[in-house]
Amino acid sequence: MSIVIAKLAISLLCLLGTALILFKKETLTRWLEGKSVTTVLSVSWILLRLLPFIATYLIAGLQPTSDVNGFWDEASKASQGQAVYRDFWSPYSPLYAYFLGIFVKLWYDPKMIVLTMAIMDGVALLISYHFFRPFQSKGAMLVKSIIYLLLPGSLVLCVIGAQEDVWMWLFVTLAYWARERTLRVEWYAAILAIGLLMTKAIFILIFLPLFILEKEKIRFLIPIAIIGVASLAILYPIVGWEFMQPLDEAKTLRAPNIQSVINPWFLNNIGVGEKFWNWVGLTISVGLACLSAWRLRNADFRVMLSRVWIVLYATMMIVQQSAYSNYIFLFLIPLVFDVINWKNKTQISLLFIFNLLCVIHPSFWWRLGMPCYMTPGDTFASSDLLIDYLMQVSIVGLTGYFIWLAFPKKLAV
């Protein structure tokens, strides 16, 4: 449990630092108004991503663990020219391993995977700054950027966990940026399609609400169809149906989610692990996302996208039995920049608790042997199991709270 204690200690320090920034928020905002955006973001990234990386892996000499081992296996083999899905297993989209492989060519070490994740997180933050900039002052945006970098849900999951979920947000905002600059829906659609090939299969879920609101639907679909057909034409002759490997992730049972929380109270009779729950989860998450998009159809695209994104992927985090709390990294940027009211102490407090729980629970649950509770008595079998179950209930409840915050209660203009 040493990794759990370490993550807990780091998370508490991060939250203390965030609280100090919020305490001096007005003064800091005014001071940052006159500073260079590039300088502030660069220095913040160096202090809160690069230096923690150097301290953890180069000075302390710790070795990357957990998901990094899987990423390293993919990236190292891809860098040697092996074929994804045929020569090595991958739960990710086909270009993911090869993109990591480019960086591995520069430094053939698992630590390079972590550094790559930190770089991509910095790029996602930079694009997000410009994405949300029209709504707020420069100082306010820079304060939120620093808060994002400091929250444990991003710092720990990026530097210690080397999670890649923020990549999906990067590609969807990059696609919007390309459309805004070129006024061409084709570039917007093409970048979305490339993002799907670079990240995870679940990235495709955002396509449906975006398609519903798209006025130029044919021009939107053509680039996606061309890239999709071309990808299959390349993949199928090489790997056959093995390109369906990413869909196997849906069969993996994880926690916390609604099923893992209610299962013991139904004496393991709800069919945990069955495909039925995957379809129910997809229907709920995509359905709520589409409803949110429709209610926000007259709102600014940036507002619509950030709210729909949170509703979609936060809901997926608690209704899909293969999702787990690391998914906070997927929607933390729009949550910080758009949804949270930084003058509301209740929202801030709950965000702090949410970050803390989402960071430490996966490691705690894993080291308990990934328990699946069958009866109410199982949750009380030991103090560790009770703590785990209470964390699961809290994460599910808090996720529901932030979905409620993001969900448009009525038609927005």
Automatic annotation (TrEMBL):
The chain crosses the membrane at residues 6-24, 36-60, 112-132, 141-162, 187-213, 220-239, 276-294, 301-318, 324-341, 348-366, 386-407. Keywords: Membrane, Transmembrane, Transmembrane helix. The keyword Hydrolase does not apply. The keyword Transmembrane applies. This is DUF2029 domain-containing protein. It comes from Dyadobacter luticola.
